[in-house]
């Protein structure tokens, strides 16, 4: 195999695909990046056994072939190369010679025949979502995906796509996050909704490499796998098996109180209160809503914090406490200028929704505080 291509294109591809490499691969071959050169294109592939990322770009091919190079070392070598054209030649099935201008490096390679066969999905339920909007949906819910493997189904996020909207839902037992995208979607004939439970790690990597534009990401699902195609990148992964929790039953439909305040002011106050909360035993922040005032407090052995700001309240006064990290995660992902919080009691879930519309819902469980 002999080919040459732009160093920046090569580095971009390697930075993308090596996101699929595992810190502790099950097989040595999965430490590598599979390079395939044919038809004036180079395809790079990395996998951890369940997640696969492929990147394809134009190249000048002198001799077609395949080889597996050490993924992270190869990437760092290319990162240190000067700008220009990189030439890679493999002639003895043991060593890759890498040249750029006056630089030359040799890398030991692995046998491409040992690399697991990667078969792209060719059939299933297809959905197209604008890349920028999909990226935004993911980044605003992933914080609520569970990390505890004891409830594996919650280590993923539920994607539901109907003909008029897409929903992405994540919950970890302490908070729930849901983002909605309202637009027409084309679904396979005879299907009213497409559902998939996508692993959290896959969503995190997808959000990192999705371009920030309005081109479509084509998502293809079968019973146990997902494939996303956008630009010159293809990502595929296993899906989580099982039934997701019926999140609709968790969401309250009626409330006794509704409070509103400036989101940025609340976020800044909570950030300051969190400094003290972290020094305490329970990492708690207390919020007290009255007719036109919101008071935020936190206490620890080293001191306490108290802040007041303007707010509006309709309904009963509310005194409620939250884990500082949980309430911070929610408020940071609210895009509106005003924060709208709804309550039933100090021990029932708080729901955060838009003042207008129905684009998102966040639910946070409070912490019971004994006076």
Describe the model:
The chain has 371 residues and is of the alpha+beta class. It folds into 3 domains: 2-114, DNA Polymerase III, Chain A, domain 2; 125-248, DNA Polymerase III, subunit A, domain 2 (DNA Polymerase III, Chain A, domain 2), CATH 3.10.150; 253-364, DNA Polymerase III, Chain A, domain 2 (Roll). 18% of the residues lie in helices and 43% in strands. It has helices spanning 7-17, 71-79, 131-139, 200-209, 247-250, 263-277, 324-332, and strands at 2-6, 32-38, 41-47, 51-58, 60-63, 65-70, 85-90, 95-100, 103-108, 125-130, 156-162, 165-171, 175-182, 193-199, 216-221, 225-230, 233-238, 257-262, 284-289, 293-300, 303-310, 312-315, 318-323, 338-343, 350-353, 360-364.
Q: Give the uncertain stretches in residue-range form.
A: none
Structural class: alpha+beta
C-alpha geometry = elongated
What is the number of strand segments?
Answer: 26
As a whole number of angstroms, the C-alpha radius of gyration is 25 Å
- Straight-line distance between termini: 73 Å
Short description:
This protein has 371 residues and is α+β, with helices and mostly antiparallel strands.
Please give a handful of descriptors for the protein shown.
371 residues, alpha+beta, DNA Polymerase III, Chain A, domain 2, 3 domains, 7 helices, 43% strand, elongated
Describe how the helices and strands are arranged.
Blueprint: E1 2-6, H1 7-17, E2 32-38, E3 41-47, E4 51-58, E5 60-63, E6 65-70, H2 71-79, E7 85-90, E8 95-100, E9 103-108, E10 125-130, H3 131-139, E11 156-162, E12 165-171, E13 175-182, E14 193-199, H4 200-209, E15 216-221, E16 225-230, E17 233-238, H5 247-250, E18 257-262, H6 263-277, E19 284-289, E20 293-300, E21 303-310, E22 312-315, E23 318-323, H7 324-332, E24 338-343, E25 350-353, E26 360-364
Antiparallel strand pairs: 1-5, 1-7, 2-3, 2-6, 3-4, 4-17, 7-8, 8-9, 10-15, 11-12, 11-14, 12-13, 13-26, 15-16, 16-17, 18-22, 18-24, 19-20, 19-23, 20-21, 24-25, 25-26
Helix pairs in contact: 1-2, 3-4, 6-7
């Amino acid at each position: 195999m002999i080919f040459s291509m732009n160093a920046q294109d090569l580095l971009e591809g390697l930075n993308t695909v090596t996101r699929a490499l595992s810190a502790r691969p099950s097989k040595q071959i999965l430490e590598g990046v599979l390079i395939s050169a044919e038809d004036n294109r180079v395809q790079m592939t990395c996998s951890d056994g369940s997640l696969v990322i492929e990147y394809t770009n134009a190249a000048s091919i002198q001799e077609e072939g395949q080889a597996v190079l050490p993924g992270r070392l190869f990437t760092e070598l290319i990162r240190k190369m000067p700008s220009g054209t990189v030439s890679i030649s493999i002639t003895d099935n043991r060593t890759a010679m890498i040249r750029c201008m006056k630089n030359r490096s040799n890398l030991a390679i692995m046998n491409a025949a040992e690399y697991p066969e990667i078969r792209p999905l060719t059939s299933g339920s297809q959905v197209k979502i604008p890349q920028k909007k999909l990226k935004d949906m993911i980044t605003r819910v992933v914080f609520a995906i569970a990390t505890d493997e004891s409830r594996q189904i919650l280590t993923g996020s539920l994607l539901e796509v109907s003909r008029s909207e897409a929903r992405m839902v994540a919950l970890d037992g302490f908070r729930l996050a849901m983002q909605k995208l309202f637009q027409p979607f084309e679904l396979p004939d005879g299907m009213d909704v497409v559902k998939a439970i996508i692993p959290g790690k896959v969503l995190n990597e997808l959000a990192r490499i999705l371009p920030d534009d309005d081109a479509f990401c084509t998502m293809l699902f079968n019973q146990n796998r997902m494939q996303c195609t956008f630009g010159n990148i293809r990502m595929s992964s296993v899906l989580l098996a099982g039934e997701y929790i019926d999140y609709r039953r968790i969401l309250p439909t009626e409330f006794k109180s509704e409070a509103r305040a400036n989101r940025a002011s609340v976020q800044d106050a909570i950030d300051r209160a969190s400094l003290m909360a972290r020094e305490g035993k329970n990492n708690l922040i207390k919020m007290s809503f009255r007719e036109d005032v919101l008071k935020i407090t936190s206490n620890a052995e080293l001191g306490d914090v108290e802040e007041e700001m303007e707010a509006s309240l309709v309904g009963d006064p509310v005194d409620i406490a939250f884990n500082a990290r949980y309430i911070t995660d929610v408020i940071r992902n609210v895009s509106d200028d005003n924060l709208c919080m709804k309550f039933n009691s100090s021990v029932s879930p708080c729901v955060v929704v838009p003042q207008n519309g129905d684009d998102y819902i966040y639910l946070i469980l409070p912490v019971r505080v004994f006076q």
